[in-house]
Design the sequence.
């Protein structure tokens, strides 16, 4: 997908919502558990009910791997369903991968070719040659962990290297890598006050913001500091949407929860124009 | 597995060799490609031919994910084969995972429970709450990336935070986490001169050393600086062993290559006693 198609989507839907498909069999409506593939049936219903309100879906691979072969199958079916029925959607494999060069190439193949995601999240610790194999793919995007939403982010990410916090060093350094125009960054919504600093370093890149909702981030704050001229934000919500109800009305309840966020996003976009 | 069983194995086999099962369909003998599951057949033959020379096997998950569902199936069959036939072997899922707490728990479930590996490699960037869910598993081991063998390691890992290189900060900090006695560290063999520094910080932990062979590390140097009183090293070799031949003699050739390394290891162990 070209970036301009994502941006067009955002303006058309008046939304920069990403819905996290972090599906836990213990949390989905029990009536789905009798189907052949409960995780896929759940995702399909959520996607069908919310695709006009969201521009992106983000399955976190951990939730699929935890169910072994059947989980991996559910992931394959989910991404195929998205690609076949809603090709305008920007898909994110939240996989947080990263390895030495020839191995990262295998991960890139897995997510960009075999599964055909538009993007994948990648960890920066191993440096340039662990990330560039992902960046080599045309019209695919690599979303690098910068400042994550968890408490542990303060352990290494905010420590200073020659006066510059590690997460800033990651952004600054990565922008020098080959094909860095295909980079996006993960910045936790719980750290909205850091966004203006990040925008100084990376004014043009899209930022994926997890943590609105269950992790306590605030949408208005995120927008205030994070928006750029292309909008430049994908704000993720997972549990607050997909588990809005665990009854038979779960998909409708998810749509209501998504619409609530989409309206707030529309208000933000309206206020700028 | 209790650590003492790994140490017993090392003395019994006079080996601290780990064999990396990084299987690429383009590199394995062509006669295997007609079998139902070429990757598993290859692994099975390699394991059967080398299990008396190695104490550990380490499939890198990237190589399996790149083949989608069938790759994941090959991984499941490989770990099941190891657990059923060679329960004394220390198994490593080289997955380099790491996510926020509840998600890391899903990864830990995937590798420790569903697949039943003894250990998994984990990236440190997200800090304590991304790693402790792995450490919570009794008799399972979390192998944290410290100083990796690739060129990109110099980009962030060796940068100084308050005078201390990031990889040392990772080791120092992680030793304060809950259940840190279940931690091991990845230290690239290409950086053997760093091992004496690492041993000052982590005298007791096992170190997983990739990069001997194809990545140019030197076994004698690694042992000189890395051994501790429990041996404390697992030295990995992948391509130099598993691709020693790509003819019908591949398993025998792998055993010859593994025996060559095992003899060097025996010489090191003999010299100490």
Sequence:
């Amino acid at each position: 997908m070209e970036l301009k198609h994502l941006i067009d989507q955002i303006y058309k839907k008046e939304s920069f919502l990403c819905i996290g498909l972090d599906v836990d069999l213990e949390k989905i409506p029990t009536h789905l558990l009798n189907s052949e593939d409960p995780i896929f049936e759940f995702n399909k219903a959520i996607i069908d009910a919310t695709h006009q309100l969201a521009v992106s879906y983000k399955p976190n691979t951990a939730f699929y791997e935890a169910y072994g072969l059947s989980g991996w199958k559910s992931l394959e079916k989910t991404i195929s369903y998205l690609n076949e029925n809603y090709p305008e959607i920007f898909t994110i494999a939240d996989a947080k991968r990263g390895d030495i060069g020839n191995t990262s190439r295998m991960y890139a193949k897995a997510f960009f070719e075999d599964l055909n995601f538009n993007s994948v999240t990648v960890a920066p610790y191993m440096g340039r040659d662990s990330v560039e194999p992902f960046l080599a793919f045309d019209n695919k995007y690599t979303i690098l962990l910068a400042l994550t939403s968890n408490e542990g982010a303060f352990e290494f990410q905010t420590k200073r290297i020659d006066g510059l916090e590690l997460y800033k060093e990651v952004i600054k350094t990565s922008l020098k890598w080959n094909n860095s125009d295909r980079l996006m960054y993960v910045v936790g919504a719980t750290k909205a006050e850091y966004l203006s600093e990040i925008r100084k370093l990376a004014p043009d890149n899209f930022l994926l913001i997890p943590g609105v909702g269950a992790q306590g981030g605030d949408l208005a704050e995120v927008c205030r500091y994070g928006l750029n001229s292309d909008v430049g934000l994908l704000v993720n919500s997972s549990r607050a949407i997909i588990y809005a109800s665990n009854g038979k009305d779960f998909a409708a309840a998810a749509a209501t929860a998504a619409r609530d966020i989409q309206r707030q996003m529309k208000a933000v976009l309206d206020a700028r124009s």
